[in-house]
Amino acid sequence: MTAAEALAEWSTSDWSANRLSQRGQGVGDSRSRNGLDDRDAIVGNVNVKSVAAVIEAKAHAAQCTIAFVTEQVVNELRSICGDAAVLREPVQLMTYECDALPHLRETPAVVVLPSSAAEVQRVVQLCSSSGVPFVARGHGTGLSGGALPVPGGVVISLARLNRVLDVDIPNRRVTVEPGVTNLEITRQVAPFGYYYAPDPSSQQVCSIGGNVAENSGGAHCLKYGFTVHHVLEVEAVMPDGELVRIGSSLPDAPGPDLLGLLIGSEGTLAVVTKVVVRILRKPEMVQTLLAAYNSTSDAGAAVSEIIAAGIVPAAVEMMDALAIRAAEAAVHPNFPPADTVLIVELDGPVAEVRELFATVEGICRRTGSTVVEVAQNDEQRMRIWRGRKAAFAAMGRVSPNYYVQDGVVPRTKLPEVLGRIRALSQRSGLGIGNVFHAGDGNLHPLICYDERIAGQAALAEEVAGEILTYCVEAGGSITGEHGVGADKKEYMPRMFSADDLDAMQQVRDAVDPQRLCNPGKVLPTPRLCGEVPGPYREHPVEQAGLAERF
Amino acid sequence: MSASDLLRAGTAEDRVDGEVPPQVAEPDSPEQFAAALKYASEAKLPTVIRGGGTKLAWGRPPSTVDLVVSTARLARLIAHRHGDLTATVQAGMRLRDFNAALRAERQWLPVDSAFADATIGGIVATNDSGPSRHRNGTPRDLVIGITLALTDGRLVKAGGTVVKNVAGYDLGKLVSGSHGTLAGIVDVTFKLVPIPPASATLVAHYKDAAALTRDVSALDASQIEPAAFDVRMSDEAAPFQLKLRIATSPAARDAQIAAARGLVSGEATVLTDMAESAAWAAQIDAPWRGDAAVRFSWLPSRLPQVLALLTEIQHSGAVSVTFVGRVLGAGLARLSGEVAAVAAAVQRLRASGDVGNVILLRGSRALKQAVDVWGPPRSSDTVLRALKQMFDPAGILNAGRGPI
Question: What kind of architecture, by CATH, is found in domain B289-370?
Answer without folding.
Answer: 2-Layer Sandwich (3.30)
